[in-house]
Amino acid sequence: MAPSLEAEPDSVASVLANPQKPQLVAPEPEHCPGPESQQAGTADSCAGCPNQAICATAPKGPDPDIPLITARLSGVKHKILILSGKGGVGKSTFTSLLAHAFATNAEQTVGVMDTDICGPSIPKMLGVEGETIHVSSTGWSPAWAMDNLAVMSIQFMLPNRDDAIIWRGPKKNGLIKQFLKDVEWGDLDFLLVDTPPGTSDEHLSVNTYLKESGIDGAVMVTTPQEVSLLDVRKEIDFCRKAGIKVLGLVENMSGFVCPKCTHESEIFKATTGGGRKLAEEMGIAFLGSVPLDPRIGMACDYGESFFDSFPDSPACRALKGVVKGLATEMGLDPEVVMPAEDDA
Fold this sequence. Notes:
The protein has about 350 residues and is α/β, with parallel strands linked by helices. The protein has helices spanning about 10-15, 50-55, 65-70, 90-105, 120-125, 170-180, 200-210, 225-240, 275-280, 295-300, 305-310, 315-330, 335, and strands at about 75-85, 110-115, 135, 140, 145, 150, 190-195, 215-220, 245-255, 265, 285-290. Helix 8 (about 225-240) packs parallel to helix 9 (about 275-280).
């Protein structure tokens, strides 16, 4: 018989409820008080257990930092996660474009938190790669890409820009907590959380730390081909199990638009219907398709706003439609979030 994960139906709920639960080296024995118990590792029944030292040193009870995070983020109106099960679909690129889109309204203040600890690319895309973190008695100050666009990333903490971050889960979780608890985000209209691919440590930590203060929802990013859609389905399933609302799905790289003649060609063929079909199948909103445009990559490389540089491009018009669709799903006025006078 082939191995199956279905034999442990409670394991998913347990991980979501206790993402910081210690990793045990042996099954919990009979009469075990439980790894989260105050008696863990010290009770008589713990004597001789291979997990004794792990349980004795594990944190006990509710996380005391959760109320501090909630207080720190009290001035943030909307929190949006940018997710995708697959790497390489343009998730960080979309996050930077969405940040610039929101920031085109000078009355709105936007924050971007880069939780892709091992591959932080947001600072490069937003033109603040050379910034450092300033620490004061009130907390860490984010870097400002624009007067109304703040950024926080591990990139600002690296001695050299090309240094690798070789960390296990607990260190990643600790830094994400600091980004939420110690950074002076102030009053924001939107906080965008860029995440790495998958459904693992970083995602569990963000969900746990923000649950009390509230998450508006998640935006899924995919490309048209089935290889990408396979993993996006898993990400949607993660959100549903974790209680995160899926605000909608964006199909990125849906075609190539020639900068000269604006003719669009399919590069990644939607063999199973693409993002639109997936959104219909999963019962979520389809926010739109964004075509490939080499100028998006160029704008990201130079840390410039694609909206300012190429406002009349097909990709820019598509992105504006995505932003307005997202605003509608969040119950906001699209013409306020993305003012009509900025449209091409």
